[in-house]
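A reminder before we start the practical. When you read a complex entry, don't treat the lines as separate problems. The point of joint prediction is that each chain is placed relative to the others, so the output describes one connected object in space. Small molecules and nucleic acid strands, if listed, are placed in the same frame. In the example below there are two entries. Take a minute to note the order of the lines before looking further.
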Amino acid sequence: MKRKKPVLLTIYTVLFFLYIFAPLILIFIFAFNSGEGYNLPLRGLTFKWFNEFFSDSMAIKAIKNSVIIAVISATVSTLLGTGLTIGVIKGITRFKTFFITVLMLPVLMPSLTIGIAALVFFRTIKIPLGIPIVILSHVSISISYVFLIMMGRIEGFYLDVQEAAIDLGASWFGSIKDVVLPAIFPSILAGWLFSFMISWNEFIVTYFLIGTELTLPVYIFSQLRFGISPVVNVIALLITLFTILIIISAGLIRRLYGRLSSRIIM
Amino acid sequence: MNTVFKNNKKLVYPALLWFAVFFLLPLAIILIYSFTADYVFQGNRPAFTLANFNEIFEKKHYLIILGRSIKMSAITTFFSILFSYPVAYFLAKKTRFDRILIVLLMVPFWINYLVRIFAWKLLLSENGIINQVLLWSGIIDEPFRILYTQTAVIMGLVYTYTPMMVLPLYATIQKIDTSLVEAARDLGASRIRAFFDVTFKLSFTGIFAGTLLVFIPALGSFAIPAILGGTDSVMIGNLVENQFFHAGNWNFGSAFTLTLAALSIALILFYSRIFGVEAIYKSREY
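Here is the predicted structure of the whole assembly.
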């Protein structure tokens, strides 16, 4: 069957992508605009907002906190989540469906509920608000995301190899360390990256638990609520560049994964 | 082989323990708070009461906020389906560049949504960029006032959550067998009829998965109405925040939070009953 080119649909898709990207491009332009407000026409190129941003000690501290929280919670949740995934794929036999549904709750439930529940919990057991409890909560959320990502990518095949290794005389620990973990390593990396991004972007739970400290999203929120400084544009630009970097590295990992798996099969 | 499975099973426990203590236990605690009247866990045994829920469902003020949040999230979901269906269809059936376009679509998704909402504040404000352009070109004489209204909040919600709708739709439409549509056409169905009776009906799974991913976060949103909305767009999230940080009524705040949680859990269970749990994680292929 011959088909005409879907002209209208193509135009619509282009418009849709414009709709998604135009607001972002706009903020990038204003990050370099020397005018004070957001008035057209543009006034000319400047880097003063960048200077202002990098000399704002609050912003730098917020970034530092965000990185610390995201790295720690990604690492812990990837460790826990990897064990969870292996156990659920090859281990758990009863109540599997119920199990998976409960584990999906942090992904699907509004973060607001999670944040409030955590706030009430930590206040009830008298643990002061701050970065440590933000990490505790982030891990409890990220475990589910790591699980989600890894369940989607690890196929039973990689874990069947484990049984083969044991048949050939490997100990259980040896089969995990030398066979399973190397085979699923790309998924582990993907899980780490994913939970890093979840934690790095997380706003609501952090906002409820952070107390007087700052993370980058909390800092942005306070900037947005009380007046809008062009410094936010600079943050937006930097965040976008950082995000693109992460996405590219995730893509590279996936490509590597493809090569590795084809090598294993051959 | 049994010992392998037994040992593998043990790997589950650390994660499960963490999950139970820092995720499930907190939920259980707000459950207790919502059915009691005082600050609990301070020695005296709390008495069971339904007063908090009575207040939600009897006072008009709270019912209005609850209803408004549901309405706004429903409108958001509707528009996100409307906007993203053609794109998902195009990506799934009409282009070879779907992979790269999907990655492109994920870029804004990974950029903090506060940043993206900030862009909308710039666009919509009274001396914002859209107004400036429209005034300058003479299309309008007076600037429109949208910022700090429900419309602005809905626009922000739609913008933020629409990419979440595209992905499950794309995944479902891609799996639809084109020969079914051709068969319908051969049997005399018009193009439009074939689309609605075959393609559209078969993509219900995707629509429902997308609805979960859009409706639930929209219902629990707090930052977007706080930034783009005004007094007519207070949502559940803003009310709850107020209860905990300003009014200090934990029991009532917990009851409201629990109502939100119950609504979303009901939706999730309904979905996993119909389509199975695997559909939830399979619909989210990033």
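Discuss with your neighbour: The longest helix of chain A spans residues 231-265. What might explain this?
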